[in-house]
Amino acid sequence: MAKRSAGMLLYRRRNEILEVFLVHPGGPFWAKKDLGAWSLPKGEYGDGEDPLDAARREFEEETGFPAPLNAVDLGEVKQAAGKVVTAWAAEGDCDPDKLVSNRCQVEWPPRTGRMIDIPEVDRGGWFTIVEAQERILKSQQPFLERLARKLDGEPTQ
User: Fold this and answer.
1) 142-155 per-position pLDDT tens digit
2) How far apart are CA 102 and CA 119, in angstroms?
3) Which helix (H) or strand (E) holds 1?
4) In Å, how far are 45, 46, 92, 96 from 2, measured between CA atoms?
5) In this predicted model, what pLDDT tens digit does every residue of 72-104 receive, in sequence order?
């Protein structure tokens, strides 16, 4: 069975322009990657756990911000490695400079047995839909398109 993740795509409107909040993964593997590396805050959840509850938990763990309660279902996508991601969108706001992520252990360099402590997310940012489409993982782009459609004609430039 494929691994499953749940995430929350925060959005806001600034001067009639729709913006989304994305996070950049922490650690040395992602340090020099930008375009195609960002994601919505998300994480894996276990059998029996409500995916929306998991999305809210992961949003708080990866950003340090309270998860909004006003969630709209964006469906699911299958990522390149086979993981199925279910996402919700919620209107809200936050200051990326105040992001505080949980930390995790990863093996670095790979196959050395040496574990290092890294933030799961090293930064976050607000992007227009067009900017976000360049930065987000390709497999998560449908979430941006679905959000724009759900907001029915909101300006996306």
Assistant:
1) 999 999 999 975 44
2) 6
3) none
4) 12, 12, 31, 32
5) 999 999 988 899 999 999 999 999 999 999 999
